[in-house]
Structures are given as structure tokens and as C-alpha cells.
Automatic annotation (TrEMBL):
InterPro entries: Kinesin-like_fam (IPR027640), Kinesin_motor_CS (IPR019821), Kinesin_motor_dom (IPR001752), Kinesin_motor_dom_sf (IPR036961), P-loop_NTPase (IPR027417). Keywords: ATP-binding, Coiled coil, Microtubule, Motor protein, Nucleotide-binding. Gene3D superfamilies: Kinesin motor domain (3.40.850.10). One of its GO terms (biological process) is microtubule-based movement. Residues 146-411 form a coiled coil. PROSITE patterns: KINESIN_MOTOR_1, KINESIN_MOTOR_2. GO terms for molecular function: ATP binding; microtubule binding; microtubule motor activity. ATP binds at G510, Q511, T512, G513, S514, G515, K516, T517. Belongs to the TRAFAC class myosin-kinesin ATPase superfamily. Kinesin family. KIN-14 subfamily. GO terms for cellular component: microtubule. This is Kinesin-like protein. It comes from Glycine soja (Wild soybean).
């Protein structure tokens, strides 16, 4: 409330609004003795008192548009009458009137303002109602929300309770964890103590690692260089291959030429024999004619001599006759006798003349015949000489072709050997057999895949185990689809090496039932599925035959043994079998300084054809120790060693070669738990595993280039010593089963094979020295 006191001292009370408006619209009067002519026009002024909108103007009043400020109103209300003369009522009255006027104006302004405010109030009331309605709605909404929130809160409370329960549990766990933390802290202290010692070790190890890293860097450098070298070797290898194929083509061409030359020579030889015999006939005839002519000439000469003698007699007689005639004194009888003699002689002479003529005619015909036969003999001779020249030419060409053939063969052997050397000495081929009828495997269950990238195509195999991939690369990988023929093609060059005078060793390694015997021997009764051993022998005997025309003669010897429970058994001899585990004979293995191996008392058989060897193989297969295991119906319980020794002599070049071909079917590795072996079978399995583990020890020692390689740890490794650590060409087949249940064994076999692949042995040496009885008995 605003207290307003008028000039008369009356006090007026205005409510705040009025008070505020009044304050703004106070009528201007002389304040402090000054008279205001016009009221202050307030437009937006006095904001502190004025409502938000402009108050209504009191238009039409005596003062026009008048607005009051607080000060104006206060000044108006506090205005005091100026009394010059207290009793001048007129003046007082006028002042009062003026004051009242101004008050009226002010009041009117207030009234207008009030009206305006009542309108405003109305508006505000309306909006208040609206707002209240809205408030009610909002309250309703709020109630709904509140209910919702209440239900959420109830839910939250429930959650809270469960969380509290959990919290209690957690806290219990926490206390347990705290306890264990305490323990751990203690342990950590221990660890920290050991950590400090380990840190020292680590420092040392890091230093070592640094030097190792340096070594690795230098090794990487070397590896790069080696890679480059390998690439250049591979290029060289490719070149050698192409040269080899061109040499082989040339060889084939020369062979063909040789065959046609030999055919020509045989034809010409036939012709020559015919012409030589006709020439001999003609010479004989000529000789007969010549002797005839000479006898005729002798006779003619005799007749001529006789004639000459008789002619001289006739002459003598004629001169005598003349003498007689001249003397005429001689008796007529004497004369007659003389005449008779002369006539007789003349007759004889004419007879002789006739004889001479006949003889001369005979001589002429004989000489004609001689001339004819001379001409035909000359013709035959020239023909003979022509043919002789042709034969000589053919023989020269034949010798040339044969020389080229020998040279080509020599070059082929050299190239072939270079290729094998480039491929590395112990090579490893991996063969995965197909799934057998009783093994089933879905596509997802397949554990092997064969990457086909450019560099590793046909050489790589990936094994998947528990979602992990293990990648391996070998010299060759045969998929289950590979046939026996395809496998043999890859080793045929190696077999050829044995004929060229090298020691060759091919062995099959793998888990039991993985296909080793199938690879080496084949499937009995299925010739198209015969294995590497019969195929190798067929090739060797075929080559032996085809090299005969070049002067090569070969002798072959075969021996077969098995190592069963660490004992050697002769598979050819029928008298020395192990009966009930008791050995008949004790065989000992010896190596000489040339790396040749001898097994004492072992039967060695001379063989001349593949059939003979097939017979012996059959016999050996029947004698071999075979048994049934859980993994294989026909499991080989021993290591089978087939040895073919080859002695070759070239009669035209005096060259001698001495090669050995060892084909080995190892017994299958197997886990005792999986094999289900007991009794004797268990003993066998243990012996097999022991010798195979000795084999891996030897391989690892060789791979690490250790000074001591434990060859003597088993009969198998001791027997294989020249192949593994010596100068032979060695190839290992790692046979793999595709059965997912054998994945563990397959991984072990692949790992072992990859170690073998990394193994380096000595450089293969060709044996071209002379033969000796001792060397004939040697093995590997
Ligand atoms: N490549 C293949 N194609 C077809 N069948 C095969 C192949 N490899 C092996 N088999 C078959 O698998 C079975 C087991 O093979 P095999 O006897 O050769 O195994 P193994 O490794 O010699 O076993 P163990 O070490 O027990 O003697 C045989 O029935 C054989 O015929």
C-alpha cells in the first residue's frame, strides 16, 4: 500500500498497483516552488512501476496525453500550499482548485489505468484458468507418471533387494578375494623376488637375444642369398631339364638312325655275301680257265717245239736231199728211202701244223673266255669294292651313332644326376591314402587340403586340427587320387640311378594302416595296383635289355630281410627262421670304409628277370611277420628291407658300375593306447616304436649336424647308416591316413617328415670301381 497525503493533509491509501501507476503518472506541479507546465510524458519510462504494457492514455483530458511518474504522484500528494497570505482564501481556493484539477487528472488516469488493469486482470484470470486447467491435466499426467514411477520404484526396490543380496554375496566373495589377494600379495612378493632374479636373467637373455637377432638377420641375409641361389639353381635345373629332353630327343633320333643303319648294313651284308660268293665263283672259274689256258699254252708250245724240231729235221732232210740230188750218184733206194722219210716228215709236219692250228683255235677261245671272265671278275671286284666302301661308310656312321648314343647316355646320366642333386639328397614325398570303406568322413570332417599356389602346387599339404591349420611342404605331395603308376613315374629316375652306379634308398614311413605296404608292394592279386618294388624291378630289367646294344652287361643280386623285435631275419633262406622267438642264426651288420654294408650269412640270390624277383618277393611276403591290429587287418609287424645289387660292365668302353637299390617298408608307428596291443603284440609294438624313435633321433642329430649321430641305437638305423649319413640318394615316403580320428598321428608323421626334408647328408657318389667278391656281398 502506498500512503498518499494530499494538500489538506488527508491520507490516501492505494494498493501496490495503483501506487506504482500513480507513482509513474504523478501530475506535474511546481515542486520545490517550481511550477510544471506540462506533465512528463512517460513512454516506457519508470519501468520499475509500470506494467509490461503501456498504460492507457487519458486522451481527451484537459492535459492531453498525460502520464505520471512515481515522483510526479508523490510530488503531487506531498505538495504543500504556498501560503503567502494565510487568509487569502481566494488564492487558496484557486490553488486548491488547481490542485484538485490535477488530482482529478491523476485520478482519471488512475481510473483508466485501473480499467486497463481490470481488463488485464480478466485476461490474466482467463489465462490463469487455462493454466489451472493445464495444471490439472499436468497433475493428472503427473499422477499417471507418478503411478508409473511408483511401479518402477517398486520394481527398482525389488531389484535393489536382489542387488543387495548379490552385493552381500559379492562382498562375501570379495572378502574371499581379499583373502586370496593377501595370499596373492604374498605370492607376488615371492614372485617379485624371483622377478628380480628373472629380470637379471631376462637382461642376460635379452643380450643373448640381441646377438641371436643379429645372427637371425645375418641368417636371413644368407637365406635370401640362398633363395636367390635356389632360384638360379631352379632356373639351371629347368635349363638342364630342357637340355635333357633335347638330348633324349637327339638320342631317340640317333637310335632310330642307328636302327635304320643297322638294317641297311644287314641288307648290304647279305648282298655282299652273295656278290662275294659269285666273285669267288668267278675267280675259281677264272683260275680253272687260266690253268686250262696255261696247259693249252704248254701243249701249244710243245707242239710248236715239236713242229720246229720237225721243221728243222725237214730242213736238214731237205738239204740232205738237195745234197743227194746234186750228187745223183747215190743209189735210188737210198734216195727213195730219203724221199719217203722226207714225205713222212712233211706229213707229220702238216699234221702238227693242223694240231697247232686246232690248239691255237682252242687257245683263242680259251683266251676269249679268260677275257670275259676277267671282265666279269673286274666288274664283280669293282662292285665288291663299291659295296665295301658303302659298308665301311655305314660302319663309320654306325660307330658314329653308337658314340653319340654312348655320349648321349653319359650326358643323360650326368644331367639326371645333377637334377637329383639339385633336388637334395634326402627327398620326401608325402602320400595320403583314400578313405577306406569302413572309414567315413563328411566334407566338413576333411582334415587335409592341398594348396594350389604357383610355387607350391603339388608340393604342399595343410592339416586342420581343432581349428588350427598346420602347413607343410615336401618335394611332392600325392593326393588320395594318385595312382600307383603316377607315384612310380616320380621315382623312376631315382631307380635309374641305381643302374648308373649309385646307392639308392627308398623307404616308407607312417602310422600303421596309412598305406606303406600298399605303396611299396601294391595290392596282391591286382596287377594294375602293383607297388614301387615290382615296378622298379620291371624298369631295371627293361633298361638292362635296352642297354645291351650299347655294350652294357648287368648282373643282379637280390637279398631280403626283416627286422623283427630288434632281430634280423633272412626272408629268402628257409632254414633260418625265427621259431617261437628263438633266432636260428645271429646276423651281424658291418660297414666297410667304402660305406658298403654287409650282413653276415644273409642269402644273396643271382636274378636274371623281373619274374624271378617277383617269385622271391612273393616268398618273402609270405614269410614276413604280419598281424592284425585294431588299426589294420594285415599290419606289418617288422621293417622289411629289399636289396638289389647291380653290377654293370660296358664291354665297348670298359666302364664298370656298381649300384644298390634298397626298398624299405617300415613297420607302422602306433600309439600303444590306440593299438590295443597286449602280450606278444605289445612287445612288437614297443620294439617298432623304439626303433622308429631311434630313427627320429638319428634324423634330428643329422639335422642339427651333431658330432655324434646315434646310428647304433637300433638295428634299423645301423643298417640304414649309409643311406642316412652317407653318400646314397635317399627318398622317404611319408604315408598319411585321411581318417580324422588319426589326425594326431598324421601331424606327428608330417612333422617328422618335414624334419627329414631339412636333413642334409653327404653328396651321392657313383661307384664305378672294379668288382670284387667282397663288394658283391655288400649292401647299401
Ligand atoms: N593309395 C591307396 N589306395 C587304395 N587303398 C589303399 C591305399 N593305401 C592303402 N590302402 C589300403 O589301406 C589299407 C592299409 O594299408 P597298408 O597295409 O599298406 O598300411 P601300412 O601302412 O603298411 O600298415 P602297417 O604299418 O600296419 O603294415 C590296405 O587295405 C590297403 O589296401
Amino acid at each position: 500500500m502506498l500512503r498518499i497525503q494530499n494538500f489538506e493533509g488527508d491520507v490516501l491509501f492505494l494498493d501496490n498497483k495503483e501506487q506504482r501507476v500513480g507513482a509513474e503518472t504523478m501530475v506535474g506541479t511546481p515542486i520545490n516552488g517550481r511550477t510544471r507546465q506540462a506533465f512528463t510524458v512517460v513512454n516506457g519510462g519508470g519501468h520499475d512501476l509500470c506494467p509490461s504494457s503501456t498504460p492507457p492514455s487519458n486522451a481527451g483530458s484537459d492535459y492531453g496525453v498525460i502520464e505520471f511518474t512515481r515522483e510526479d504522484v508523490e510530488a503531487l500528494l506531498n505538495e504543500k500550499a504556498k501560503r503567502k497570505d494565510r487568509f487569502n482564501y481566494k488564492e487558496r481556493c484557486e490553488n486548491m482548485m488547481d490542485y484538485i484539477k490535477r488530482l482529478k487528472v491523476c485520478i482519471r488516469w488512475f481510473q483508466d489505468l485501473e480499467m486497463y488493469y481490470s481488463l488485464e486482470q480478466e485476461k490474466l484470470k482467463n489465462s490463469l484458468e487455462m493454466t489451472q486447467k493445464k495444471c490439472i491435466e499436468i497433475e493428472l499426467l503427473l499422477k499417471i507418471k507418478e503411478e508409473e514411477l511408483n511401479s518402477i520404484i517398486t520394481e527398482m526396490r525389488r531389484n535393489c533387494t536382489s542387488l543387495q543380496e548379490k552385493l552381500i554375496k559379492e562382498e562375501m566373495e570379495k572378502s574371499a578375494a581379499v583373502e586370496s589377494l593377501v595370499k596373492e600379495r604374498e605370492a607376488r612378493l615371492d614372485i617379485e623376488r624371483s622377478h628380480s632374479t628373472l629380470s637379471e636373467d631376462l637382461g642376460r637373455a635379452q643380450r643373448e637375444m640381441q646377438s641371436a637377432n643379429q645372427k637371425i638377420a645375418s641368417l636371413n641375409e644368407m637365406y635370401k642369398r640362398l633363395q636367390d641361389y635356389i632360384t638360379s639353381l631352379q632356373q639351371y635345373n629347368g635349363k638342364l631339364h630342357s637340355e635333357l629332353s633335347s638330348v633324349e630327343d637327339e638320342l631317340k633320333r640317333v637310335e632310330k638312325e642307328k636302327v635304320s643303319v643297322v638294317e641297311n648294313i644287314t641288307l648290304l651284308r647279305g648282298q655282299l655275301t652273295v656278290s662275294v660268293s659269285s666273285q669267288e665263283e668267278a675267280i675259281k672259274q677264272k683260275d680253272v680257265l687260266a690253268t686250262e689256258v696255261s696247259s693249252l699254252r704248254g701243249e701249244l708250245q710243245q707242239v710248236r717245239d715239236e713242229r720246229d724240231r720237225q721243221l728243222s729235221q725237214v730242213q736238214i732232210l731237205s738239204s740232205e736231199l738237195e745234197k743227194v740230188k746234186e750228187s745223183t750218184k747215190h743209189s735210188s733206194t737210198e734216195l727213195d728211202s730219203l724221199t719217203f722219210k722226207a714225205n713222212d716228215l712233211e706229213e707229220k709236219c702238216s699234221l702238227k701244223d693242223n694240231q697247232i692250228k686246232a690248239l691255237e683255235e682252242q687257245l683263242a677261245t680259251a683266251e676269249k673266255k679268260l677275257q670275259v671272265s676277267d671282265i666279269s671278275a673286274y666288274e664283280t671286284r669293282t662292285e665288291y669294292e663299291g659295296q665295301q666302301i658303302f659298308v665301311n661308310e655305314l660302319q663309320r656312321r654306325l660307330a658314329d651313332a653308337e658314340y653319340k648314343l654312348i655320349e648321349g647316355e653319359r650326358l643323360r646320366k650326368k644331367l639326371h644326376n645333377t637334377i637329383l642333386e639339385l633336388k637334395g639328397n634326402i627327398r620326401v614325398f608325402c602320400r595320403v591314402r583314400p578313405l577306406l570303406a569302413d572309414e567315413s568322413c563328411s566334407t566338413e570332417g576333411r582334415i587335409f587340403s592341398y594348396p594350389t599356389s604357383m610355387e607350391t602346387s603339388g608340393r604342399a599339404i595343410d592339416l586342420a586340427q581343432n581349428g588350427q591349420k598346420h602347413a607343410f611342404t615336401f618335394d611332392k605331395v600325392f593326393t588320395p587320387e594318385a595312382s600307383q603308376e603316377e607315384v612310380f613315374v616320380e621315382i623312376s629316375q631315382l631307380v635309374q640311378s641305381a643302374l648308373d652306379g649309385y646307392k639308392v634308398c627308398i623307404f616308407a614311413y607312417g602310422q600303421t594302416g596309412s598305406g606303406k605296404t600298399y605303396t611299396m608292394m601294391g595290392r596282391p592279386g591286382h596287377p594294375e595296383e602293383k607297388g614301387l618294388i615290382p615296378r622298379s624291378l620291371e624298369q631295371i630289367f627293361q633298361t638292362k635289355q635296352s642297354q645291351q646294344p650299347q655294350g652294357w652287361k648287368y648282373e643282379m643280386q637280390v637279398s631280403m630281410l626283416e627286422i623283427y623285435n630288434e632281430m634280423i631275419r633272412d626272408l629268402i633262406s628257409t632254414t633260418t627262421r625265427v621259431e617261437n622267438g628263438t633266432p636260428g642264426k645271429q646276423y651281424t651288420i658291418k660297414h666297410d670304409v667304402n660305406g658298403n654294408t654287409q650282413v653276415s650269412d644273409l642269402t644273396v640270390v643271382d636274378v636274371h628277370s623281373a619274374k624271378e624277383v617277383a617269385f622271391l618277393l612273393n616268398q618273402a611276403a609270405n614269410s614276413r611277420s604280419v598281424g592284425k591290429t585294431q588299426m589294420n587287418e594285415q599290419s606289418s609287424r617288422s621293417h622289411f628291407v629289399f636289396t638289389l645289387r647291380i653290377y654293370g660292365v660296358n664291354e665297348s668302353t670298359d666302364q664298370q658300375v656298381q649300384g644298390v637299390l634298397n626298398l624299405i617298408d617300415l613297420a607302422g608307428s602306433e600309439r600303444l593306447s590306440k593299438s590295443g596291443s597286449t602280450g606278444d603284440r605289445l612287445k612288437e609294438t614297443q620294439a617298432i616304436n623304439k626303433s622308429l624313435s631311434s630313427l627320429s633321433d638319428v634324423i634330428f642329430a643329422l639335422a642339427k649336424k651333431e658330432d655324434h649321430v646315434p646310428f647304433r641305437n637300433s638295428k634299423l638305423t645301423y643298417l640304414l647308416q649309409p643311406c642316412l649319413g652317407g653318400d646314397s640318394k635317399t627318398l622317404m615316403f611319408v604315408n598319411i591316413s585321411p581318417d580324422p580320428s588319426s589326425v594326431g598321428e598324421s601331424l606327428c608323421s608330417l612333422r617328422f617328415a618335414s624334419r627329414v626334408n631339412a636333413c642334409e647328408i653327404g653328396t651321392p657318389r657313383r661307384q664305378t670301381n672294379g668288382r670284387s667278391i667282397e663288394s658283391r656281398l655288400s649292401y647299401f
